[in-house]
Amino acid sequence: MYTVWFNMLFGDTRDRWDGDGVTDPRARHFWDEQKTVGNWFSANVTHNPGTTWDFYALYGPDATGLTLPVSYGGTIISQTTRLRTSIEPLLAVTPRS
């Protein structure tokens, strides 16, 4: 899991950021001062005006690019059910023959 953080609200600064909202040890945290990632997602995935933020994008194991996520949406907290429904098939284990 990659988490990309940048300044969107008053008080969002790198020196005050600690990433404690995502504590899973598999998460990799990055700071994007120029909002490059959020602007790229706006232009290529969400097509929202401005910078896409507080957002998730889910990709399957065969993804070859970032423009076609399996699922994407607003905050993980507000989209928990949608994210769970989208991720469960990706986590299904296929029995070996």
For the termini, the CA-CA separation is 30 Å
Summed up, the domain count is 1
Number of strands: 4
Which structural class do the helices and strands define? alpha+beta
User: How much is the average pLDDT?
Assistant: 89
Oligomer: single chain
Strand order of the biggest β-sheet: 1-2
Quick one: overall form?
A: globular
Main pleated-sheet profile: 2 strands, parallel
The run of helices and strands is EEHEEH
The poorly predicted ranges are: none
How large is the radius of gyration? 15 Å
Task: Tell me what you see in this structure.
It contains 2 helices and 4 strands, in the order ββαββα. With 97 residues, the protein is an alpha+beta fold. It has one domain (2-91). The strands form 2 sheets. A two-stranded parallel sheet has the order 1-2. Strands 3-4 form a two-stranded antiparallel sheet.
